[in-house]
Amino acid sequence: MSDTHRRLTGLVRQRLFWPVLILVVLLVSNLFFTPSFFSITVRDGHLYGSLIDILRASTPLVLVAVGMTVVIATGGIDLSVGSVMAISGALACLHISGLADQNSVTGVLFAVVLALGLSVLLGLWNGALVAAIGIQPIIATLILMVAGRGLAQLITDGQIINVNSAPYKVIGAGYALTLPVSVLIVVAVVTAAALLIRRSALGMLVESVGGNPTASRLAGIRARQLVILAYVFAGLCAGIAGLIFSSNVSSADGNNAGNLIELDAILAVVIGGTALTGGRFSLAGSVLGAVIIKALDITIYTIGIPSQANLLFKAVVVIVLCLAQSSAFRARLAGITRRGGPARPPATPPGKRPDGTGGGLPQQAGPAAPAEAEVRA
Amino acid sequence: MTDAAPILEMTGIGKTFPGVVALDDVDFRMFPGEVHALMGENGAGKSTLIKVLTGVYGIDRGEIRLAGRQVRFAGPLQAQQAGVSTVYQEVNLCPNLSVAENIFIGREPRRFGAIRWATMRRRSAELLHRLHLDIDVTAPLSSHSLAVQQMVAIARAVDISAKVLILDEPTSSLDASEVEQLFAVIRQLKESGVAILFVSHFLDQVYEIADRMTVLRNGRLIGEWPVAQLSQLELVAKMIGKDLSVLEQLDGESKPDLATLEGGQPVLEATGLGRSGAIAPFDLTIHAGEVVGFAGLLGSGRTEAARLLFGADRAERGRVSIAGKPTALRGPRAGMANGIAFCSENRRAEGVVEDLTVRENLVLAMQAARGWARPIPRRRQDELVAKYIAALQIRPADPELPIRNLSGGNQQKVLLARWLITEPKLLIVDEPTRGIDVGAKAEIQRLVVELAGGGMAVLFISAELEEVLRLSHKIAVLRDRQMIDQLANGAGVDVDRIMRTIAGEAAA
What is the rounded average pLDDT of the residues B345-360? Predict the structure, then answer.
């Protein structure tokens, strides 16, 4: 094995190698259709360009995906994030529309605090259903997913609330330091969350609870507290995402804000290499996953896919993404191309997943499965 | 036996994984109608040899001949069709399906595409009857004991094909009477001409059932012997490649006097502690520096009693005093707060967190006790981990390796270390040496002696009576979820005496 070869395999083994590669391929392929795709210009002291657009468009999804990652790491799932987004935006807009002066900064700040406070409460509700009462996460959060839409519509009285508030508009559509404020907010929130999770023992304990709840209990971990915290964090992230979303269009639409975003968020988590079964998670991977999904959306427009074929095209690309993420699939593919014959089992002892990147959807590695599948009464 | 032609011949087998030579020029053969034990420490290449034989892995070098014909299996299914079946340690059946369904799953007797349920039930019952097992074949598999499940798996394997049957650690979760039941089945199969490959860590069982054995060490063939020609001591020496000084040294050490130990204040005192369906109320006192052994069959209530003492399960009756103070053990955290550590018998389900690294697994309990907001500084973690990797000789000595890459014995050492760094006053270890190799077993036993010597109270639970006798100052005997006797270890207390107590004969 030559030195460069070894360095190359080391690079490929990196956790984030595949998501990064996918993103680069996606961006570069745009260049063939839009030669100016990578150009960034300065206009009125703001940066403009397709890359900036992608970042801006990804902001709500990145936040929701980061919250979803922590919930999935505990072995759960949060389907209610889209509804929480809608509720948060609706409550903020309702409060602002009732202000005597919609441009009052304190009034807007109060609206923001109010919306985020409610988002935290909604997260607490989910966490309590899952951890204290013991309802299956998919059912527990389905309740708020459905009921939350109703709550949002109740807040907006079934209408779209339009606001005309300059300070509120800054959150989703403003610029600071040449960059969109929404991007700066997301960078700040995600960095702070990542620091809190990885510098404290939260990350490890969450991974332990998601990886083996029984062993974690016997080791004295307070799983209930951690699970509730995870849902609260997901609620807060969704709340901020809802503010960015509604501020960007200066209105709140209880019906459509954050609609189906939970599915994109779950997809982003999977593309980022976190297994849906819980345990090891990667926040950076989920951020990349979310940006990949938005880059794909934008690519679909720039390369001119007919609108009726949009979803089909996206579905095909997503399937390819997930397969590329799956180490089992890659090993199989390598077996076929190398030998020109049927796939050989990957040369990894059973019970050992090749590396951390095997966490995508198609995780059922063929030959290793019998040893891993433990059937105990 | 050697005059017959071997049914299976593997010659010059080589298998390399990235960075590891798993098998190096290994020969292995089996004759019809023999029980052949494959022996070796963890990592010696036993599992790899079995997986190569059953087509889970391809081979790099060498050839496999079955009944004289060269074969190369692409997978376990093909191996099974050719006559090589495997029953794994963990029963690989569906607990929610009926016994009959499990036996015939994937090959149900059919007529016009519809399953012939009556035929299936009748043939299952016949098949099990031949193995002297008369059970309800329509009941879900999970309603039967683990031993019966194991035999159902064997019945299935034998019915599919019956030239070579591989039993990988079939007895590790069975108690003594169940093992006898299984051995009766094995003998029966042997008489009908099946070649049985038997893998077990229990040397006594190997000597009871096997006719011939092959020893592997570090992926190499050490040799093949008829069982009668190799003593247990010689076998162990061949397996670990050195003589058994560690074990003998342990026997030579004298234990502190029980009376002296019991003079002090007890670390833990349980009175009338019990939980219905788990363990009848019992009294137990453990002093500092004392090793108390729990002896009893599997399912006798050993684990259940230990769980109450830690707080893993809540006691319904009785009181616990710790260091003289009445204490309620409401959960694992309460146990830990009172200086109790509990190392579960079920390493995989209740011990290791497979996603995490060796370091993370090792500091898990200590971190949990501190709470998430007070992380153990990384430098302190690295110090602790380095110290215990060296002290317990955990291999490979890489703290950042995922723990699932370690062998069972080394995982066990990490779990022990997880509790040792919390500096418990009472360490409860449930079956710490089950399913691990001889070398690691001796190291863990020595560790228990050292810890007790340093003043820790240890509750030691094991199905191996010799082990309990070797280590304990006091032995509590359990049967049918009751603690029936407590014996001070010393003259007159031997395996025989404990066996008789377990069997219910009053000690004369």
Answer: 90
All domains in chain B, ordered by first residue: 8-247 (3.40.50.300), 250-339+425-508 (3.40.50.300), 348-423 (no CATH)
Which pTM does this prediction carry?
0.75
Given an 8 Å threshold on Cβ–Cβ distance, is B76 in contact with A219? Answer: no
Residues of chain B contacting residue A200, judged by C-beta atoms under 8 Å apart: 372-373, 375
Of the partner residues A207, A215, A279, the one whose CB lies closest to the CB of residue B351: A215
Q: Give mean pLDDT, residues A322-345.
A: 67
Q: Where are the domains of chain A?
A: 45-288, 328-372
DSSP H helical ranges for chain A: 3-13, 17-31, 50-73, 81-97, 105-127, 137-156, 166-173, 181-199, 202-211, 213-218, 223-249, 261-271, 283-302, 310-325, 327-339, 369-372
CA distance B252 to chain A (A): 35
Q: What is the pLDDT of residues B68-85, one digit of tens each?
A: 889 888 888 888 888 888
Predicted confidence at residue A354, as pLDDT, reads 39
Q: Which of B17, B141, B364 sits opposite A219 (nearest CB)?
A: B364
Beta-carbon separation of B367 and A280 below 8 A: no
> pLDDT-derived band of residue A342, with 50, 70 and 90 as boundaries?
very low
Nearest to B353 among A216, A349, A367 (CB): A216
CB pair distance less than 8 Å for B332 and A280:
no
The yes or no reply on domain A45-288 and CATH 1.10.10 is no
Sorted by sequence, the CB contacts under 8 Å of residue A93 that are 6+ apart come out as: A111, A156, A161, A162, A163, A246, A251, A252
Structure ipTM over 0.90, yes or no: no
